[in-house]
Design brief:
By secondary structure, this protein is mostly helical. It has helices spanning 2-9, 31-44, 58-64, 78-91, 96-110, 122-127, 133-145, 149-162, 165-176, 182-197, 207-216, 241-258, 260-263; strands spanning 65-68, 71-74. Helix 11 packs antiparallel against helix 12. The longest helix has 18 residues, at 241-258. Mean pLDDT is 75; it is low at 274-294.
Length: 294
């Protein structure tokens, strides 16, 4: 189950040309009830998950993992603490009961003892396609306050998922502030550019600003330079800065051709209010998270 979780979590980030073979465990009769019952039994047995700083604690790791066939694998309580919530996310991301379980797990395990969600929860929130004002604010906060490339990438991906005015405006502000923090910006800017371009017509009036930032950071390919997609491109956020930037700029070029009337609009003009956002096509059954902390 643990290997299957790892496999499906990376399936849409696969670098191989051949599509992965999916086993579709979510369609197995009784699988959902089996996993939920296993989770409840672990709770009743008071299997304790580590809290933040204890995630790599040697004593906890020793009790949660064992060696099999030359590899370390999870056993109880490791399966209960990590594998089951991960399977819930991948197999039943739109299930309200599952979502409640995962949100509580994220808060208790990664909440810094504050019973709320932190930046390291963004990957899971994106996988569940959670959309709410609270989550939107968390993504914006993590984009500005976190130097971790993975968290910043997940924040940008989440803002692309949300497609809100506040999310776009936040990325636009981030793009031009703190320019002296060059290392951080080289790692994170490509993800922000990629997310901004996903807003379609909304980004066109800001095209020159986008290109200027990319140029100033040395993220634009030089004349005659060939940039190939590197291994691990969609898995590791620090891989492929220039390649990701070129892909975003290519999409930006296509958007300018599609919306030529927006190219001449200045970014501070009221005409921007008439540019529509692309609303993501989510099923109506996905609930909005109303409250994330007490």
């Amino acid at each position: 189950m643990g290997w299957y979780l790892f496999y499906i979590a990376l399936s849409d980030q696969n670098d191989a040309e051949d599509p992965p073979i999916m086993r579709r465990l979510e369609t197995v009769p009784g699988m959902r009830s089996f996993l939920l019952e296993t989770w409840r039994n672990g709770s009743e047995a008071e299997l304790e998950c580590p809290q933040d700083g204890d995630l790599m604690d040697s004593e906890w790791a020793e009790s949660a993992m064992e060696m099999r066939n030359g590899r370390f694998v999870y056993k109880e309580p490791g399966i209960w603490c990590f594998v089951l919530p991960g399977l819930f996310v991948e197999l039943y991301p739109q299930d309200p009961e599952v979502r409640d379980i995962v949100l509580e797990w994220l808060k208790s395990t990664f909440g810094n003892g504050q019973d709320n969600l932190q930046c390291n929860a963004l990957f899971t929130l994106n996988r569940m396609k959670v959309r709410s004002e609270e989550i939107n604010e968390l993504r914006i906060q993590c984009l500005f306050e976190n130097d971790n490339a993975e968290d910043s990438a997940n924040a940008a991906k989440g803002l692309a998922l949300m497609q809100t005015e506040s999310g776009f405006d936040a990325m636009l502000e981030w793009l031009t502030e703190d320019e002296h923090r060059r290392n951080r910006r080289i790692a994170n800017t490509p993800h922000v550019l990629e997310a901004m371009v996903s807003y379609g017509a909304r980004v066109v009036p800001h095209a020159q600003r986008v290109r200027d930032v990319a140029k100033n950071l040395g993220l634009i390919a030089k004349e005659g330079e060939t940039i190939s997609r590197p291994a691990g491109y969609n898995i590791f956020p620090n891989v492929g800065h220039k390649y990701r930037t070129q892909q975003a700029l290519r999409s930006l070029n296509l958007l300018e051709r599609r919306y030529p009337e927006l190219v001449s609009i200045k970014a501070n003009e009221e005409e921007l209010e008439d540019i529509p956002l692309v609303v993501p096509d989510f099923p109506d059954s996905i609930p909005v998270v109303q409250k994330l902390s007490d």
